[in-house]
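FAQ: What does a multi-protein file look like?

Like this. Sequence, then C-alpha coordinates, then the next protein.
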Amino acid sequence: MAPITAGAPPATAHAIHAEARTTKPAAAPPKKSKAPAAGKRHASKAAKTPARSKASYTIRAGDNLTTIAKAHKVSLAALLKANKFSDPNRVLVGDRIVVPVPAGGKQTAKPVARKTPAKPHTYGGLSPKQVLKKGRSATKAALAATDVPSRSQTKALIEQTARRYGVNRQLALGIGWQESGWNQRAVSSVNAVGVMQVMPQSGEWASGMVGHNLDLLEARDNVTAGVAILRYLTANAKDLDQAIGSYYQGLGAMRKHGPYEDTKAYIRSVRAHMERM
Protein backbone atom coordinates (compact mmCIF):
# COMPACT_ATOMS: atom_id res chain seq x y z
CA MET A 1 0.00 0.00 0.00
CA ALA A 2 1.41 3.56 -0.63
CA PRO A 3 2.35 5.79 2.29
CA ILE A 4 -0.44 7.65 3.83
CA THR A 5 -0.78 11.21 2.69
CA ALA A 6 -1.19 13.52 5.65
CA GLY A 7 -1.35 17.28 5.69
CA ALA A 8 -0.89 19.48 8.74
CA PRO A 9 -1.65 17.67 11.99
CA PRO A 10 -5.20 18.26 13.18
CA ALA A 11 -5.70 20.75 15.95
CA THR A 12 -6.45 19.23 19.33
CA ALA A 13 -9.96 20.06 20.50
CA HIS A 14 -9.96 21.15 24.12
CA ALA A 15 -13.24 21.28 26.05
CA ILE A 16 -13.85 24.81 27.38
CA HIS A 17 -15.92 24.92 30.56
CA ALA A 18 -17.59 28.29 31.06
CA GLU A 19 -18.02 29.51 34.61
CA ALA A 20 -21.68 29.72 35.69
CA ARG A 21 -23.10 33.19 36.11
CA THR A 22 -25.04 33.98 39.32
CA THR A 23 -27.44 36.72 40.33
CA LYS A 24 -26.31 39.34 42.85
CA PRO A 25 -26.38 37.98 46.39
CA ALA A 26 -29.45 38.84 48.47
CA ALA A 27 -29.13 41.26 51.44
CA ALA A 28 -29.59 38.45 53.91
CA PRO A 29 -28.10 35.02 53.47
CA PRO A 30 -30.66 32.45 52.28
CA LYS A 31 -32.12 29.94 54.68
CA LYS A 32 -30.64 26.49 54.67
CA SER A 33 -32.70 24.33 52.45
CA LYS A 34 -32.30 21.33 50.23
CA ALA A 35 -34.00 23.26 47.48
CA PRO A 36 -31.88 25.74 45.58
CA ALA A 37 -32.19 29.39 46.52
CA ALA A 38 -34.65 31.34 44.41
CA GLY A 39 -33.12 33.34 41.62
CA LYS A 40 -29.81 31.51 41.86
CA ARG A 41 -28.36 30.04 38.69
CA HIS A 42 -26.45 26.82 38.89
CA ALA A 43 -23.60 25.77 36.69
CA SER A 44 -24.67 23.11 34.26
CA LYS A 45 -22.27 20.26 33.76
CA ALA A 46 -20.32 20.55 30.57
CA ALA A 47 -21.56 18.10 27.97
CA LYS A 48 -19.24 15.20 27.54
CA THR A 49 -17.79 14.55 24.12
CA PRO A 50 -19.77 11.65 22.67
CA ALA A 51 -17.89 8.40 22.97
CA ARG A 52 -16.93 6.80 19.70
CA SER A 53 -18.10 3.33 18.82
CA LYS A 54 -16.06 1.22 16.45
CA ALA A 55 -16.67 -0.51 13.13
CA SER A 56 -14.39 -2.60 10.95
CA TYR A 57 -13.26 -2.01 7.38
CA THR A 58 -11.36 -4.33 5.04
CA ILE A 59 -8.56 -2.73 3.01
CA ARG A 60 -9.24 -2.94 -0.72
CA ALA A 61 -7.01 -2.39 -3.74
CA GLY A 62 -6.34 1.34 -4.20
CA ASP A 63 -7.09 2.31 -0.58
CA ASN A 64 -4.89 4.39 1.66
CA LEU A 65 -5.53 5.58 5.20
CA THR A 66 -6.16 9.18 4.18
CA THR A 67 -8.95 8.32 1.73
CA ILE A 68 -10.47 5.81 4.17
CA ALA A 69 -10.58 8.46 6.91
CA LYS A 70 -12.15 11.00 4.55
CA ALA A 71 -14.78 8.54 3.27
CA HIS A 72 -15.85 7.65 6.80
CA LYS A 73 -15.75 11.26 8.05
CA VAL A 74 -13.14 10.71 10.74
CA SER A 75 -9.78 12.39 11.14
CA LEU A 76 -6.62 10.62 10.08
CA ALA A 77 -5.34 11.06 13.64
CA ALA A 78 -8.42 9.26 15.04
CA LEU A 79 -8.01 6.41 12.56
CA LEU A 80 -4.32 5.98 13.47
CA LYS A 81 -5.10 6.11 17.21
CA ALA A 82 -7.86 3.50 16.91
CA ASN A 83 -5.58 1.00 15.20
CA LYS A 84 -2.15 1.63 16.79
CA PHE A 85 -0.35 0.69 13.58
CA SER A 86 3.27 -0.33 14.07
CA ASP A 87 3.86 1.01 10.55
CA PRO A 88 0.92 2.70 8.74
CA ASN A 89 2.84 2.37 5.46
CA ARG A 90 2.56 -1.42 5.68
CA VAL A 91 -1.23 -1.76 5.60
CA LEU A 92 -1.97 -4.40 2.96
CA VAL A 93 -4.96 -5.36 0.84
CA GLY A 94 -7.21 -7.68 2.88
CA ASP A 95 -6.20 -6.24 6.27
CA ARG A 96 -9.12 -5.44 8.60
CA ILE A 97 -8.88 -2.13 10.43
CA VAL A 98 -10.98 -0.36 13.04
CA VAL A 99 -12.87 2.79 12.02
CA PRO A 100 -14.05 4.98 14.94
CA VAL A 101 -17.66 6.17 14.62
CA PRO A 102 -19.20 9.00 16.74
CA ALA A 103 -21.86 7.80 19.20
CA GLY A 104 -25.24 7.84 17.51
CA GLY A 105 -23.61 7.96 14.10
CA LYS A 106 -23.98 5.34 11.43
CA GLN A 107 -21.18 3.44 9.76
CA THR A 108 -21.95 3.41 6.07
CA ALA A 109 -19.24 0.86 5.24
CA LYS A 110 -19.31 2.06 1.65
CA PRO A 111 -16.20 1.46 -0.46
CA VAL A 112 -13.77 4.33 -0.82
CA ALA A 113 -14.34 6.17 -4.07
CA ARG A 114 -11.62 5.62 -6.64
CA LYS A 115 -10.71 7.06 -9.97
CA THR A 116 -11.37 4.92 -13.01
CA PRO A 117 -8.03 3.29 -13.85
CA ALA A 118 -6.35 4.44 -17.04
CA LYS A 119 -6.44 2.10 -19.99
CA PRO A 120 -3.43 -0.24 -19.71
CA HIS A 121 -0.53 0.23 -22.08
CA THR A 122 -0.23 -2.37 -24.83
CA TYR A 123 2.75 -3.78 -26.69
CA GLY A 124 2.04 -4.56 -30.32
CA GLY A 125 -1.61 -4.91 -29.39
CA LEU A 126 -0.86 -7.24 -26.48
CA SER A 127 -1.41 -6.49 -22.81
CA PRO A 128 1.63 -6.75 -20.49
CA LYS A 129 0.26 -10.01 -19.10
CA GLN A 130 -0.14 -11.47 -22.60
CA VAL A 131 3.42 -10.48 -23.53
CA LEU A 132 4.89 -12.09 -20.42
CA LYS A 133 2.83 -15.23 -20.94
CA LYS A 134 4.30 -15.67 -24.44
CA GLY A 135 7.75 -15.96 -22.90
CA ARG A 136 11.24 -14.51 -23.00
CA SER A 137 11.42 -13.74 -26.74
CA ALA A 138 8.17 -11.74 -26.65
CA THR A 139 9.32 -9.92 -23.51
CA LYS A 140 12.65 -8.95 -25.06
CA ALA A 141 10.94 -7.76 -28.25
CA ALA A 142 8.45 -5.63 -26.31
CA LEU A 143 11.22 -4.02 -24.26
CA ALA A 144 13.37 -3.41 -27.34
CA ALA A 145 10.50 -1.39 -28.83
CA THR A 146 9.91 0.58 -25.60
CA ASP A 147 11.65 3.72 -24.37
CA VAL A 148 13.51 3.03 -21.14
CA PRO A 149 15.27 5.36 -18.68
CA SER A 150 19.05 5.80 -18.62
CA ARG A 151 21.05 4.28 -15.78
CA SER A 152 21.25 7.61 -13.97
CA GLN A 153 17.50 8.07 -14.35
CA THR A 154 16.93 4.53 -13.13
CA LYS A 155 19.09 5.14 -10.08
CA ALA A 156 17.02 8.21 -9.21
CA LEU A 157 13.82 6.20 -9.73
CA ILE A 158 15.01 3.45 -7.37
CA GLU A 159 15.94 6.01 -4.71
CA GLN A 160 12.60 7.79 -5.03
CA THR A 161 10.64 4.53 -4.81
CA ALA A 162 12.67 3.27 -1.85
CA ARG A 163 11.90 6.49 0.05
CA ARG A 164 8.23 6.18 -0.80
CA TYR A 165 7.96 2.64 0.55
CA GLY A 166 10.33 3.03 3.49
CA VAL A 167 12.99 0.67 2.13
CA ASN A 168 16.71 1.13 2.74
CA ARG A 169 18.03 3.14 -0.22
CA GLN A 170 21.34 1.27 -0.43
CA LEU A 171 19.57 -2.08 -0.29
CA ALA A 172 17.23 -1.20 -3.19
CA LEU A 173 20.10 0.20 -5.25
CA GLY A 174 22.35 -2.77 -4.48
CA ILE A 175 19.69 -5.34 -5.44
CA GLY A 176 18.86 -3.42 -8.62
CA TRP A 177 22.51 -3.28 -9.67
CA GLN A 178 23.11 -6.94 -8.86
CA GLU A 179 20.03 -8.03 -10.79
CA SER A 180 20.36 -5.96 -13.96
CA GLY A 181 22.95 -3.20 -13.69
CA TRP A 182 19.92 -0.85 -13.56
CA ASN A 183 18.88 -1.93 -17.05
CA GLN A 184 15.14 -2.10 -17.74
CA ARG A 185 15.70 -4.12 -20.94
CA ALA A 186 17.33 -7.01 -19.04
CA VAL A 187 15.45 -10.32 -19.37
CA SER A 188 16.74 -13.52 -17.77
CA SER A 189 16.61 -17.04 -19.19
CA VAL A 190 13.54 -17.72 -17.01
CA ASN A 191 11.79 -14.48 -18.07
CA ALA A 192 12.60 -12.40 -15.00
CA VAL A 193 12.01 -8.86 -16.18
CA GLY A 194 13.59 -5.44 -16.04
CA VAL A 195 15.57 -3.44 -13.52
CA MET A 196 14.58 -5.55 -10.52
CA GLN A 197 14.35 -8.85 -12.46
CA VAL A 198 10.84 -9.60 -11.28
CA MET A 199 9.19 -12.86 -12.30
CA PRO A 200 5.64 -12.48 -13.71
CA GLN A 201 4.03 -14.32 -10.78
CA SER A 202 6.00 -12.19 -8.32
CA GLY A 203 4.75 -9.11 -10.16
CA GLU A 204 1.15 -10.23 -9.55
CA TRP A 205 1.93 -10.68 -5.84
CA ALA A 206 3.53 -7.23 -5.68
CA SER A 207 0.47 -5.75 -7.43
CA GLY A 208 -1.68 -7.09 -4.63
CA MET A 209 0.60 -5.56 -2.01
CA VAL A 210 0.59 -2.07 -3.53
CA GLY A 211 -3.10 -2.14 -4.45
CA HIS A 212 -2.99 -1.76 -8.23
CA ASN A 213 -1.78 -3.64 -11.31
CA LEU A 214 1.92 -3.27 -12.06
CA ASP A 215 3.27 -3.44 -15.61
CA LEU A 216 6.68 -5.08 -15.28
CA LEU A 217 7.62 -3.90 -18.77
CA GLU A 218 7.42 -0.28 -17.57
CA ALA A 219 10.42 0.87 -15.53
CA ARG A 220 8.54 2.70 -12.77
CA ASP A 221 6.20 -0.23 -12.13
CA ASN A 222 9.07 -2.71 -12.33
CA VAL A 223 11.02 -0.83 -9.67
CA THR A 224 7.86 -0.50 -7.56
CA ALA A 225 7.35 -4.27 -7.70
CA GLY A 226 10.93 -4.99 -6.65
CA VAL A 227 10.88 -2.44 -3.84
CA ALA A 228 7.50 -3.69 -2.56
CA ILE A 229 8.92 -7.21 -2.41
CA LEU A 230 11.99 -5.91 -0.56
CA ARG A 231 9.72 -4.13 1.91
CA TYR A 232 7.94 -7.40 2.62
CA LEU A 233 11.19 -9.34 2.95
CA THR A 234 12.86 -6.86 5.29
CA ALA A 235 9.74 -6.86 7.46
CA ASN A 236 9.58 -10.66 7.67
CA ALA A 237 13.19 -11.87 7.49
CA LYS A 238 15.19 -12.30 10.69
CA ASP A 239 18.01 -10.05 9.48
CA LEU A 240 19.32 -8.17 6.45
CA ASP A 241 21.28 -11.12 5.04
CA GLN A 242 18.18 -13.30 5.10
CA ALA A 243 16.19 -10.55 3.36
CA ILE A 244 18.84 -10.18 0.64
CA GLY A 245 19.13 -13.94 0.17
CA SER A 246 15.35 -14.30 0.04
CA TYR A 247 15.13 -11.96 -2.95
CA TYR A 248 17.26 -14.52 -4.81
CA GLN A 249 16.33 -17.84 -3.20
CA GLY A 250 12.91 -17.21 -1.66
CA LEU A 251 12.06 -16.61 1.99
CA GLY A 252 10.56 -20.08 2.52
CA ALA A 253 13.64 -21.82 1.18
CA MET A 254 15.94 -19.56 3.20
CA ARG A 255 14.06 -20.40 6.39
CA LYS A 256 14.03 -24.12 5.65
CA HIS A 257 17.50 -24.68 4.21
CA GLY A 258 19.51 -21.55 4.92
CA PRO A 259 21.42 -19.92 2.05
CA TYR A 260 22.75 -22.15 -0.70
CA GLU A 261 26.33 -21.56 -1.86
CA ASP A 262 25.25 -19.42 -4.82
CA THR A 263 22.95 -17.46 -2.48
CA LYS A 264 25.88 -16.76 -0.16
CA ALA A 265 27.81 -15.35 -3.12
CA TYR A 266 24.73 -13.26 -4.05
CA ILE A 267 24.50 -11.82 -0.53
CA ARG A 268 28.21 -10.91 -0.50
CA SER A 269 27.89 -9.24 -3.90
CA VAL A 270 24.83 -7.20 -2.92
CA ARG A 271 26.55 -6.16 0.32
CA ALA A 272 29.55 -4.96 -1.69
CA HIS A 273 27.30 -2.94 -4.02
CA MET A 274 25.57 -1.39 -1.00
CA GLU A 275 28.90 -0.22 0.39
CA ARG A 276 29.57 1.68 -2.84
CA MET A 277 26.13 3.35 -3.02
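And here is the next protein:
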Amino acid sequence: MADKQSKKAAEPRGIQSVEVAFRVIAPFLASPGPFTLRYLAEKAGMSPTSLHFYLVSLVRTGLLVRNEAGNTFALGSTAIHLGLAALANIDAVQAAREPMQSLRDELGTPVCLSIWSDKGPIIVLHLPGLRTSYWTLQVGAVLPPLSAAGRAILAYFPPPLQKEVIARALKDSQPEDPWHASSVEQILAVLKEIRRTGISPRSGAVVPGFASIASPILNAEGVAVAALTVVANTPAFDDRPEGQNAEALLRVAQQISLNLGASHDKRFPRA
Protein backbone atom coordinates (compact mmCIF):
# COMPACT_ATOMS: atom_id res chain seq x y z
CA MET A 1 0.00 0.00 0.00
CA ALA A 2 2.84 2.33 0.90
CA ASP A 3 4.55 1.54 -2.41
CA LYS A 4 1.45 2.48 -4.36
CA GLN A 5 1.10 5.73 -2.42
CA SER A 6 4.77 6.62 -3.00
CA LYS A 7 4.48 5.92 -6.74
CA LYS A 8 1.36 8.03 -6.93
CA ALA A 9 3.05 10.85 -5.07
CA ALA A 10 6.06 10.66 -7.37
CA GLU A 11 4.00 11.17 -10.53
CA PRO A 12 4.45 14.68 -11.91
CA ARG A 13 1.42 16.92 -11.72
CA GLY A 14 -0.19 17.95 -14.97
CA ILE A 15 -2.94 20.26 -16.14
CA GLN A 16 -6.10 18.20 -16.35
CA SER A 17 -7.82 20.59 -18.74
CA VAL A 18 -4.97 20.15 -21.24
CA GLU A 19 -5.34 16.38 -21.08
CA VAL A 20 -9.09 16.70 -21.57
CA ALA A 21 -8.51 18.98 -24.56
CA PHE A 22 -6.36 16.29 -26.14
CA ARG A 23 -9.24 13.85 -25.77
CA VAL A 24 -11.32 16.31 -27.76
CA ILE A 25 -8.88 16.44 -30.70
CA ALA A 26 -7.87 12.75 -30.52
CA PRO A 27 -10.47 11.66 -33.15
CA PHE A 28 -8.57 13.73 -35.74
CA LEU A 29 -5.61 11.35 -35.39
CA ALA A 30 -7.70 8.63 -37.04
CA SER A 31 -9.49 10.79 -39.61
CA PRO A 32 -9.18 14.39 -40.80
CA GLY A 33 -12.88 15.02 -40.21
CA PRO A 34 -14.79 17.27 -40.20
CA PHE A 35 -16.77 16.09 -37.17
CA THR A 36 -19.95 17.30 -35.53
CA LEU A 37 -20.06 18.50 -31.92
CA ARG A 38 -22.18 15.49 -31.00
CA TYR A 39 -19.64 13.06 -32.49
CA LEU A 40 -16.70 14.71 -30.68
CA ALA A 41 -18.64 14.73 -27.41
CA GLU A 42 -19.33 11.02 -27.74
CA LYS A 43 -15.69 10.20 -28.49
CA ALA A 44 -14.42 12.39 -25.62
CA GLY A 45 -16.96 11.00 -23.16
CA MET A 46 -18.32 14.48 -22.42
CA SER A 47 -21.64 16.23 -22.60
CA PRO A 48 -22.10 18.57 -25.59
CA THR A 49 -22.41 21.49 -23.17
CA SER A 50 -19.07 20.76 -21.49
CA LEU A 51 -17.39 20.10 -24.82
CA HIS A 52 -18.54 23.44 -26.21
CA PHE A 53 -16.19 25.41 -23.92
CA TYR A 54 -13.18 23.35 -25.03
CA LEU A 55 -14.10 23.80 -28.68
CA VAL A 56 -14.27 27.58 -28.25
CA SER A 57 -10.68 27.64 -26.93
CA LEU A 58 -9.39 25.18 -29.52
CA VAL A 59 -10.88 27.31 -32.31
CA ARG A 60 -9.39 30.49 -30.79
CA THR A 61 -5.91 28.95 -30.75
CA GLY A 62 -6.27 27.73 -34.33
CA LEU A 63 -6.00 24.05 -33.45
CA LEU A 64 -9.51 23.58 -34.81
CA VAL A 65 -11.62 25.52 -37.27
CA ARG A 66 -15.41 25.67 -37.24
CA ASN A 67 -17.54 25.34 -40.34
CA GLU A 68 -20.46 27.62 -39.55
CA ALA A 69 -22.64 26.26 -42.35
CA GLY A 70 -22.54 22.64 -41.23
CA ASN A 71 -21.61 23.31 -37.59
CA THR A 72 -18.70 20.90 -37.88
CA PHE A 73 -15.08 21.09 -36.78
CA ALA A 74 -11.83 20.30 -38.58
CA LEU A 75 -8.12 20.74 -37.90
CA GLY A 76 -7.05 24.38 -38.08
CA SER A 77 -3.93 26.17 -39.30
CA THR A 78 -2.10 25.86 -35.99
CA ALA A 79 -2.51 22.08 -36.02
CA ILE A 80 -1.30 21.94 -39.61
CA HIS A 81 1.81 24.01 -38.82
CA LEU A 82 2.55 21.83 -35.78
CA GLY A 83 2.32 18.75 -37.99
CA LEU A 84 4.64 20.25 -40.58
CA ALA A 85 7.12 21.20 -37.87
CA ALA A 86 7.07 17.62 -36.59
CA LEU A 87 7.59 16.27 -40.11
CA ALA A 88 10.59 18.56 -40.54
CA ASN A 89 12.25 16.80 -37.61
CA ILE A 90 11.94 13.34 -39.12
CA ASP A 91 15.42 12.06 -39.92
CA ALA A 92 14.41 10.91 -43.40
CA VAL A 93 13.09 14.35 -44.31
CA GLN A 94 16.26 16.08 -43.17
CA ALA A 95 18.46 13.58 -44.97
CA ALA A 96 16.42 13.77 -48.18
CA ARG A 97 15.86 17.48 -48.67
CA GLU A 98 19.08 18.48 -50.49
CA PRO A 99 19.44 15.28 -52.57
CA MET A 100 15.80 15.66 -53.65
CA GLN A 101 16.44 19.19 -54.83
CA SER A 102 19.33 17.95 -56.94
CA LEU A 103 17.16 15.18 -58.43
CA ARG A 104 14.35 17.62 -59.21
CA ASP A 105 16.79 20.01 -60.88
CA GLU A 106 18.33 17.17 -62.90
CA LEU A 107 15.06 15.67 -64.17
CA GLY A 108 12.82 18.73 -63.98
CA THR A 109 9.96 16.59 -62.66
CA PRO A 110 8.04 16.69 -59.37
CA VAL A 111 9.74 14.67 -56.63
CA CYS A 112 8.18 13.58 -53.36
CA LEU A 113 9.15 11.67 -50.23
CA SER A 114 6.61 9.42 -48.49
CA ILE A 115 6.56 7.50 -45.23
CA TRP A 116 4.17 4.70 -44.31
CA SER A 117 1.00 5.38 -42.34
CA ASP A 118 -1.86 3.12 -41.32
CA LYS A 119 -3.67 4.08 -44.55
CA GLY A 120 -0.69 3.86 -46.90
CA PRO A 121 2.25 6.10 -47.81
CA ILE A 122 1.80 9.75 -46.86
CA ILE A 123 3.71 12.55 -48.59
CA VAL A 124 5.95 14.37 -46.11
CA LEU A 125 8.07 16.36 -48.55
CA HIS A 126 7.22 17.53 -52.07
CA LEU A 127 9.22 19.53 -54.59
CA PRO A 128 7.26 20.72 -57.66
CA GLY A 129 8.67 20.23 -61.13
CA LEU A 130 10.43 22.94 -63.08
CA ARG A 131 7.68 23.23 -65.67
CA THR A 132 4.07 24.26 -65.05
CA SER A 133 1.77 21.36 -64.23
CA TYR A 134 -2.01 21.18 -64.32
CA TRP A 135 -1.98 19.32 -61.03
CA THR A 136 -0.21 19.65 -57.69
CA LEU A 137 0.78 17.22 -54.97
CA GLN A 138 0.20 18.21 -51.38
CA VAL A 139 2.19 17.37 -48.27
CA GLY A 140 -0.09 15.20 -46.17
CA ALA A 141 -1.73 13.48 -49.14
CA VAL A 142 -2.13 9.73 -48.64
CA LEU A 143 -1.18 7.56 -51.62
CA PRO A 144 -2.61 4.09 -52.35
CA PRO A 145 -0.76 1.21 -50.62
CA LEU A 146 -0.01 -0.34 -54.04
CA SER A 147 1.20 2.85 -55.69
CA ALA A 148 4.86 2.98 -56.72
CA ALA A 149 5.75 4.58 -53.37
CA GLY A 150 3.64 2.11 -51.42
CA ARG A 151 5.18 -0.92 -53.13
CA ALA A 152 8.70 0.46 -52.55
CA ILE A 153 8.13 0.45 -48.79
CA LEU A 154 5.91 -2.63 -48.73
CA ALA A 155 8.72 -4.66 -50.35
CA TYR A 156 10.53 -4.55 -47.00
CA PHE A 157 7.59 -5.55 -44.80
CA PRO A 158 7.51 -9.03 -43.21
CA PRO A 159 5.82 -11.49 -45.62
CA PRO A 160 2.66 -12.02 -43.51
CA LEU A 161 2.10 -8.27 -43.30
CA GLN A 162 2.77 -7.89 -47.02
CA LYS A 163 0.01 -10.39 -47.82
CA GLU A 164 -2.39 -8.69 -45.41
CA VAL A 165 -1.83 -5.22 -46.88
CA ILE A 166 -2.01 -6.49 -50.47
CA ALA A 167 -5.21 -8.46 -49.91
CA ARG A 168 -6.90 -5.47 -48.30
CA ALA A 169 -5.72 -3.10 -51.05
CA LEU A 170 -6.96 -5.41 -53.81
CA LYS A 171 -10.31 -5.78 -52.08
CA ASP A 172 -10.68 -1.99 -51.86
CA SER A 173 -9.37 -1.31 -55.39
CA GLN A 174 -11.40 0.31 -58.14
CA PRO A 175 -11.54 -0.82 -61.82
CA GLU A 176 -9.41 2.17 -62.85
CA ASP A 177 -6.58 1.23 -60.46
CA PRO A 178 -3.57 -0.27 -62.31
CA TRP A 179 -3.45 -3.24 -59.92
CA HIS A 180 -7.21 -3.99 -59.90
CA ALA A 181 -6.88 -7.22 -61.91
CA SER A 182 -3.73 -8.41 -60.12
CA SER A 183 -3.50 -11.29 -57.67
CA VAL A 184 -1.68 -11.34 -54.33
CA GLU A 185 0.96 -13.63 -55.86
CA GLN A 186 1.56 -11.22 -58.74
CA ILE A 187 2.06 -8.29 -56.39
CA LEU A 188 4.40 -10.36 -54.20
CA ALA A 189 6.49 -11.11 -57.29
CA VAL A 190 6.70 -7.38 -58.02
CA LEU A 191 7.84 -6.72 -54.43
CA LYS A 192 10.56 -9.34 -54.78
CA GLU A 193 11.81 -7.63 -57.94
CA ILE A 194 11.80 -4.26 -56.18
CA ARG A 195 14.10 -5.65 -53.50
CA ARG A 196 16.41 -6.92 -56.25
CA THR A 197 16.55 -3.81 -58.42
CA GLY A 198 15.67 -0.97 -56.07
CA ILE A 199 13.04 0.38 -58.47
CA SER A 200 9.29 0.27 -57.90
CA PRO A 201 7.96 0.32 -61.47
CA ARG A 202 5.36 2.46 -63.18
CA SER A 203 2.20 3.44 -61.37
CA GLY A 204 -0.36 5.96 -62.56
CA ALA A 205 -2.05 6.21 -59.19
CA VAL A 206 -0.35 9.34 -57.85
CA VAL A 207 -1.61 11.51 -60.69
CA PRO A 208 -4.00 9.60 -63.00
CA GLY A 209 -2.62 9.42 -66.50
CA PHE A 210 0.93 10.29 -65.48
CA ALA A 211 3.50 7.64 -64.62
CA SER A 212 5.50 7.55 -61.40
CA ILE A 213 8.45 5.42 -60.32
CA ALA A 214 9.81 5.08 -56.81
CA SER A 215 12.75 3.71 -54.86
CA PRO A 216 12.91 2.69 -51.18
CA ILE A 217 14.95 4.63 -48.64
CA LEU A 218 16.71 2.32 -46.19
CA ASN A 219 18.13 3.03 -42.73
CA ALA A 220 21.09 1.50 -40.89
CA GLU A 221 19.04 -1.65 -40.13
CA GLY A 222 18.07 -2.12 -43.77
CA VAL A 223 14.46 -1.12 -43.06
CA ALA A 224 12.58 0.90 -45.67
CA VAL A 225 11.71 4.08 -43.76
CA ALA A 226 10.48 6.04 -46.79
CA ALA A 227 10.04 6.04 -50.55
CA LEU A 228 11.41 8.53 -53.03
CA THR A 229 9.08 9.07 -56.00
CA VAL A 230 9.52 10.82 -59.33
CA VAL A 231 6.24 11.79 -61.01
CA ALA A 232 6.03 12.39 -64.73
CA ASN A 233 5.04 15.88 -65.85
CA THR A 234 4.84 14.91 -69.51
CA PRO A 235 3.46 11.85 -71.36
CA ALA A 236 6.94 11.39 -72.89
CA PHE A 237 8.49 10.69 -69.47
CA ASP A 238 10.82 7.67 -69.58
CA ASP A 239 9.52 5.40 -66.83
CA ARG A 240 11.42 2.27 -67.85
CA PRO A 241 13.11 0.55 -64.87
CA GLU A 242 16.32 0.46 -66.90
CA GLY A 243 15.96 4.06 -68.18
CA GLN A 244 17.96 7.15 -67.29
CA ASN A 245 15.27 8.55 -64.98
CA ALA A 246 15.25 5.34 -62.96
CA GLU A 247 19.06 5.43 -62.83
CA ALA A 248 19.00 8.99 -61.43
CA LEU A 249 16.25 8.09 -58.95
CA LEU A 250 18.14 5.05 -57.71
CA ARG A 251 21.37 7.01 -57.33
CA VAL A 252 19.71 9.67 -55.17
CA ALA A 253 17.76 7.10 -53.14
CA GLN A 254 21.07 5.40 -52.38
CA GLN A 255 22.60 8.71 -51.34
CA ILE A 256 19.73 9.41 -48.92
CA SER A 257 19.96 5.88 -47.53
CA LEU A 258 23.68 6.34 -46.92
CA ASN A 259 22.87 9.60 -45.13
CA LEU A 260 20.62 7.56 -42.83
CA GLY A 261 23.39 5.09 -42.07
CA ALA A 262 22.59 2.33 -44.57
CA SER A 263 25.62 0.38 -45.71
CA HIS A 264 26.38 -0.32 -49.37
CA ASP A 265 25.66 -4.03 -48.95
CA LYS A 266 22.08 -3.18 -47.94
CA ARG A 267 21.47 -1.40 -51.23
CA PHE A 268 21.05 -2.78 -54.69
CA PRO A 269 23.59 -4.38 -57.06
CA ARG A 270 22.62 -2.04 -59.86
CA ALA A 271 23.47 1.06 -57.79
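Q: Is there any per-entry metadata?
A: Some entries carry free-text notes. For the entry above: The CA atoms of residues 154 and 162 lie 6 Å apart.
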